[in-house]
Write a sequence for this structure.
């Protein structure tokens, strides 16, 4: 009945898919929810990449909200050509931002996985 709760509980503090600051740092125990072991300079880089990944995830969410705002403006334009053009440009800019933020987050995750391995 509450399977969706355990699905989100497995991520140890993840909120809307935004990772924690210790996402890429190895932990002392078997669980990823344990305290992270910060032993080397490489771990500081991994924390920095996790913070960057958090900011890029927030940028993805902001681009989605910006796109939805553009669609609402398109609906509310009532056929006015200037309003339609403004809403369309807002939606295109949001999609461009979404693609850039998503690809950047993917690159950061890849680099962090290679450094953490």
């Amino acid at each position: 009945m509450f399977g969706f709760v355990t699905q989100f509980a497995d991520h140890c503090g993840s909120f809307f898919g935004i990772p924690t600051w210790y996402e890429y740092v190895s932990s002392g125990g078997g669980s990823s929810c344990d305290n992270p072991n910060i032993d080397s300079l490489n771990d500081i880089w991994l924390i920095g990449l996790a913070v960057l990944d958090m900011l890029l995830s927030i940028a993805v969410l902001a681009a989605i909200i910006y796109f939805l705002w553009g669609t609402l403006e398109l609906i509310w334009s009532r056929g006015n050509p200037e309003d339609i053009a403004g809403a369309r440009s807002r939606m295109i800019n949001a999609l461009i931002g979404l693609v850039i933020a998503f690809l950047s987050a993917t690159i950061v995750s890849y680099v962090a996985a290679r450094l953490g391995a």
